[in-house]
Amino acid sequence: MIWLRSLRARLAVAFAAAVFSTVLVFGTATAVAIYVHDREEIRSATDATGSSSPWVGDDLHDAKKLGVAMLLMSPFAVAGAALLGLLLAGRALTPIHEAAERARKALRGEGALEMPVRGIGDEWDELAEVTNDLLRAQALSIERIRAFSANAAHELRTPLTAMLGEVQVTLRRERAPGEYQAALRVVEVEANRLTRLVELLLALARADAGTLDPASIRFDLERAVRLARERAAASHAGADRRITLRLAPATALGDPLLTGRVLDNLIDNALRHGGENVAVLVEAGAEVVRVSVTDDGSGVPKGIRSRVFERFTREGAPASGFGLGLAIARGLAEAQNGRLWLDEASAGGRFVLELPSGS
Fold it and tell me: 110 in helix, strand or coil?
């Protein structure tokens, strides 16, 4: 039946059926009990006097009257139960209908979806509050994905545009071999920049998807810092004189390759955006080990401290960067059950990496 497709109608029918079953069971049980009791009285009276008393058997008549009365009243009881069930089910299902209407409006683009909370603390309110938190988190995630996609598209378009423009200008007329070589060098630089950006985006995507699959081994954190300093010296002129190490013997539990990438990003960030000198400090603890990278610059501006780990954040940074280094560093640290944060109390820029201790 079509009308029974409604949850409200099914609840009303179930309520009425429960009342009817109760009436039927109670009436039957009462009639049987009275009938059995009456039969026992008839047998007892017959055994004692040899003949049945005219008064014995009245209970049987009463049972019949009770059965007839219950039979006559049961339709009214069932009808009343059905109406009461419809009323109670309708009130109970009101927030569901309201939620469905809000979902229709959100589907038409008339605002964000949010479940109604009645404020009475029942099961629906608990479900609605959890659902609303989930919807807000998803909306924030979608907004971040949209911003990330727009920024990534812009960053990808920049080197591609430069490469295409250089090629088109070069091909407009015949040129000397030296001019072709100069054009190819420009294309090579932009291609390397594009390759670097793609690698960074892939690293972020893997970190977001949880597919980095980092190793969990004990490794020498002091040695990892020394290797990171050597790599920085190879890519930054004079970096070996600008970087000061203050190391303590420490063993970390994690992935030495990913940790090396985090250290590379932190040291590179300090060399590019900090002051003249960079200090790297290793501290060993019972449960965690910490590496802090500090520069003697003016520090991170207050206006961007809350966004310093966001992707494509480049306020005050050179145009040659992508604004992805710190975001990737935090993702790699968290993939190893570690943490990375900005020490806002430091006079200069100070970033602290914390990893589980391997001792």
Answer: coil
pLDDT bucket at 48, cuts 50 / 70 / 90:
low
Residue with tokens 């014995």: 56
Task: Report the distance separating Cα 284 and Cα 290, nearest Å.
Answer: 7
305-308, long-range: CB < 8 A, 24+ apart: 305/342, 305/344, 308/342
Please provide the DSSP assignment of 203-257 as one string: HHHHHHHT------EEEEHHHHHHHHHHHHHHHSTTHHHHEEEE----EEEE-HH
Q: For residues 69 and 190, which has the higher predicted lDDT (pLDDT)?
A: 190
| Helices of type H across the chain | 7-49, 58-92, 94-107, 123-170, 177-209, 221-235, 239-242, 256-273, 325-335
254-268 pLDDT tens trace: 998 889 989 988 998
Domain ranges of the chain: 2-92, 140-209, 217-356
Would you call 107 helix, strand, or coil by DSSP? helix
Q: How far apart are CA 323 and CA 201, in angstroms?
A: 11
User: Token match 């009275």: residue?
Assistant: 34
Placement of tokens 């009245």 in the chain: 58
In this chain, the answer to whether the domains covering 140-209 and 217-356 adopt an identical fold is no
The Cα–Cα gap between 61 and 59 comes to 5
CATH assignment of 140-209?
A: 1.10.287.130
* Cβ contact 287:251 at 8 Å: no
Q: pLDDT band for position 288 (50/70/90)?
A: very high
The hierarchical CATH code for the domain 217-356 is: 3.30.565.10
**In angstroms, rounded to a whole number, what is the distance separating the alpha carbons of residues 65 and 76?**
18
For 275-301, letters b (16+ CB in 10 Å) and e give bebbbbbbbbeeebbbbbbbbbbebbe
